[in-house]
Write a structure and sequence with these properties.
172 residues, five-stranded antiparallel beta sheet, four-stranded antiparallel beta sheet, 9 strands, 25% helix
Length: 172
């Protein structure tokens, strides 16, 4: 089964995915080059919710429509469930991305609600099994960022409860 990624206007336009056994096995860009090995990574994303977008973001999370239409659709909800608010008031999460450019597919969906402050490698690329070619598509089930994820979880506040509380009606 082949699917076009993205929509007209550049969101991954021209890329084709072959799906097998309900997971991505092969991704080919418009020039016919196979993506995957060396083209994915785990990123630490730092963002701030845009003013006036809190309610829309929460509604899209609760309805399960955040990222709808994206090839990474379910990843957005997982990211928000794991996201943490840090002392500098940025929301942070670890994102697995298979695009040749960090968050190429995801960026337009995130930017509907967030100002992306910083996107950086979540771990050393030299140690990445996908990046060094020892295990293609390793990022999907890799635990390379487990220490960072644990640190975020244990030292920062969960994002979703804070978002819900910020929108709660203050009247009794």
């Amino acid at each position: 089964m082949k699917l076009e990624i993205g929509r007209k206007g550049g969101r991954g336009e021209g890329a084709v995915i072959s799906r097998a056994r309900s997971r991505l096995d092969l991704m080919i860009n418009s020039d016919g080059r196979q993506l995957g090995m060396g083209d994915n990574m785990r990123y630490l994303v730092r963002a701030r919710v845009k003013d006036g977008c809190q309610r829309g973001l929460l509604e899209s999370i609760e309805r399960g429509t955040l990222g709808q239409g994206s090839v990474a659709e379910g990843e957005y909800l997982r990211n928000m469930n794991e996201a943490r608010v840090c002392p500098d008031q940025t929301v942070r999460w670890i994102e697995v991305c298979y695009c040749p450019t960090p968050l190429q597919e995801e960026r337009p969906y995130w930017e509907e609600y967030f100002d992306l402050v910083k996107v950086q490698d979540a771990h050393d690329r030299r140690k990445c099994r996908d990046e060094n070619g020892s295990e293609p598509w390793a990022c999907g089930d890799c635990d390379c960022t487990s220490r960072l994820e644990e640190k975020l979880k244990n030292t920062n506040k969960p994002f979703l409860p804070l978002l819900r509380n910020s929108l709660a009606d203050p009247t009794p």
